[in-house]
Design goal:
It is a single chain. The protein is of the alpha/beta class and 589 residues long. It has helices spanning 7-17, 32-40, 51-65, 77-92, 118-122, 137-149, 162-166, 187-199, 209-213, 217-227, 253-259, 313-324, 334-354, 363-377, 392-398, 422-434, 457-461, 466-472, 495-507, 525-530, 541-553, and strands spanning 5-6, 22-25, 44-47, 69-73, 96-102, 128-131, 155-161, 168-169, 203-207, 231-233, 262-266, 287-292, 309-310, 385-390, 410-411, 450-456, 478-483, 534-538, 558-563. Strands 3-2-4-5-7-6 form a 6-stranded parallel β-sheet, with helices on both faces. β14 (385-390), α15 (392-398) and β15 (410-411) form a beta-alpha-beta unit. α3 (51-65) crosses α16. The protein starts with a strand and ends in a 26-residue tail after the last strand.
Length: 589
């Protein structure tokens, strides 16, 4: 007769049979037993300093690998902290499997240690929430794993009571979850869409991060190369087609959206990032064709449900290529000429901004200096650098500076605009690309990738303790902290003036620090130094060049603390929401 196994061992074995190779989390009693059993089976456990960052890492791992990332936390407060990852997973449609301990089942309602009804709390925010028993461990885990993965990706939760983890049971076979089935479109719908594209005067393809998640780069590149239709990538879709592609209209975004009369959307939603598909950013008469795996998304906001296509992006794009039969868009059209003129103007303006030489440096000068060094060390076409960016200005401005040529090499705050994801995402990217037998791929080879973080000083503060996590696991991640001393902008570039404002704040007097203020030239580089990494404090382009090159070549975590202009006289706003005035909307009947 087989020896009984603890619930912890059964859970670890079920995860192993599901093919889980990495778990992100933060342990305590009793879930520590699960982590140790998983490690004994060869599963990597990446132990974080905060559940929030661990849950973010698991969501990013799900996006990069195309299958659920797994996060393990304690019950009660651990679940509350990890709810950040639940929201991030749901908002971005990234597959996440969250596992958490809970009180013994016979202690429920008695005020047990960290007692909380996590099922009731998380059910409205997850695709499925299950409380497992000893006998149902394999079924509970495989069901949650599959539910997270199939259809639109999202969060799934399994509650694991302490008596289940610590009890004894018999091993049963875990159902191995196959790759999700891929749906094709109705051929008649494909014909109609093709007719619209061919008859359009100003067609546009919008490529979203859903296309990157679906690993649809080969078919989308073929579609654009064969048709020559201009395309616009959303921020995390950069690299599905190279930024250098001649049909890329990212530098003429406003002109492309306003001028297009037929828009094919592949893996993006008509949310705030795309201005809801509405005026004044979009053409009032535009016809929008949404391709999405989720039927609920079709017709949302200004989308037309009659034109929407339910299906897998890879399959649907291949159907479109076949039906188009080699048709090409006329690249001498007025639309293309308008796009080129806008690109010339905007790129010229950006080039001029990058030439501004002043101390403290500007955002543009900082990013351009860094870009030139990184591109020399690792050309974008090699696909060996992963960029993570967060912080409103840092993310928004850097987006157009650092080119990528391959998919899933740029991550940012995403649909949920979640600040604090950066270091968790960086750790996830390192694991996805650089562990033995990596589960993620991008670019022409399987070589190791350097993870580069571009962090606003406010965003960095959310999870700076995870630099120690990076150091503990030997992750050579390069972090730039763009330090202007505030959220959006700082309060002063003069130490004496800032100290006077601080004094007024402490004493409750007028003329104090704004609510968006952070500390004066905080020494963020010391965080890396105290963990065994390297830190650099830079103020000039020359210092930045040296720190970038040395940091890129280092084999430990590096924090480059870049002091830039405070921008205290500038208006507080987020560029994505600028000019987003409410528009009059006619109800669809």
């Amino acid at each position: 007769m087989a020896q009984p196994l603890t619930g912890a061992a059964l859970i670890a074995r079920a995860l192993h049979q599901l093919g889980v190779k990495v778990i992100f989390g933060l342990v305590g009693i009793p879930v520590v037993q699960i982590a140790e059993e998983a490690i004994a089976l060869g599963i990597r456990f990446i132990a974080f300093r905060n559940e929030q960052a661990a849950s973010y890492a698991a969501t990013a791992y799900g996006y990069l690998t195309g299958k659920p990332g797994v996060c393990l936390v304690v019950g009660g407060p651990g679940v509350l902290h990890a709810m950040a990852g639940i929201g991030n997973s749901s908002g971005n449609a990234f597959p996440l499997l969250l596992l958490a301990g809970s009180s013994e089942t016979h202690m429920v309602t008695k005020g047990a240690f960290q007692e909380m009804d996590a099922i009731s709390l998380l059910s409205p925010h997850t695709k499925i929430a299950i409380r497992s028993t000893l006998d149902s461990i394999p079924q509970s885990l495989s069901t949650a794993y599959r539910t997270s993965w199939y259809g639109r990706g999202g969060p799934a939760f399994v509650d694991l009571p302490a008596d289940v983890i610590q009890g004894d049971g018999e091993e049963t076979t875990t159902y191995v979850v196959p790759t999700p089935p891929k749906a094709a479109s109705d051929p008649e719908k494909i014909k109609r869409v093709v007719q619209l594209l061919k008859s359009a005067k100003s067609p546009l393809v919008i490529v979203g991060k859903g296309a990157a998640y679906a690993q649809a780069e080969a078919s989308i590149r073929q579609l654009i190369d064969e048709t020559r239709i201009p395309f616009l990538p959303t921020p995390m879709a950069k690299g599905v087609l190279p930024d250098s592609h001649p049909s890329n209209t990212a530098s003429a975004r406003s002109t492309a959206l306003k001028g297009a009369d037929v828009v094919l959307i592949l893996g993006a939603r008509l949310n705030w990032i795309l201005h809801f598909g509405e005026e004044p950013k979009w053409n009032s008469a535009v016809k929008i064709i949404q391709v999405d795996i989720s039927a609920e998304e079709l017709g949302k906001n200004n989308g037309d449900p009659a034109l929407g296509i339910i299906g897998d992006i890879n399959v649907v794009t291949s159907q479109l290529i076949s039906a188009l039969g080699g048709w090409q868009y006329d690249t001498t059209s007025p639309f293309i000429k308008a796009l080129k003129a806008s690109e010339f103007k905007n790129e010229g303006r950006a080039a001029q901004s990058a030439k501004v030489n002043k101390i403290p440096m500007t955002y543009a000068k900082t990013f351009n200096t860094t870009k030139l060094v990184l591109d020399k060390l690792s050309p974008p076409e090699d696909g060996n650098v992963v960029y993570i960016s967060e912080g409103a200005n840092t993310m928004d401005i850097s987006r157009s500076v650092f080119p990528v040529s391959h998919p899933r090499l740029r991550l940012d705050a995403g649909t949920y605009a979640t600040m604090g994801v950066g270091l968790g995402y960086a750790i996830a990217a390192h694991c996805a690309y650089n562990l033995p037998n990596p589960e993620a791929y991008s670019g022409p080879n399987v070589s190791r990738k350097k993870v580069v973080c571009l962090e606003g000083d406010s965003a960095f503060g959310f999870s700076l303790a995870e630099v120690e996590t990076m150091a503990r696991y030997g992750m050579d991640i390069l972090i730039f902290v763009i330090n202007n001393g505030g959220v959006y902008h700082g309060d002063s570039e003069e130490a004496d003036k800032w100290l006077e404002m601080q004094k007024n704040t402490i004493q409750g007097n007028a003329g104090g620090l704004r609510s968006s203020s952070l500390g004066w030239e905080v020494g963020y580089e010391k965080v890396a130094e105290m963990c065994g990494g390297k830190g650099y404090l830079v103020r000039t382009p020359e210092e930045l060049k040296r720190a970038t090159e040395e940091g890129f070549k280092a084999n430990v975590p590096v924090v480059v603390n870049v002091i830039i202009e405070a921008g205290q006289a500038q208006k507080l706003e987020f560029a994505w929401q600028a000019n987003s005035k409410k528009t009059k909307k006619v109800a669809k009947l």
